[in-house]
Amino acid sequence: MNILDLFIPNVKEMKAQKDVKCLIKALKNKIDLNTRVEAAKALGRIEMKWRLNNLFKF
User: Could you say which of 18, 38, 46, 57 is the most buried, measured as most Cβ atoms within 10 Å of its Cβ?
Assistant: First the structure.
């Protein structure tokens, strides 16, 4: 286990819980490009209406 693994969000868990807020935060992760890619994919798979409503609250 790398020390940086402590700072990498668990995108699979966020996707399973449909945690849009955390997935959006994961898009800003500067440590791991793969995390950003997976977060973007997960957001794309979540229901469109839910995603759009929450994106515009920020």
Answer: 38
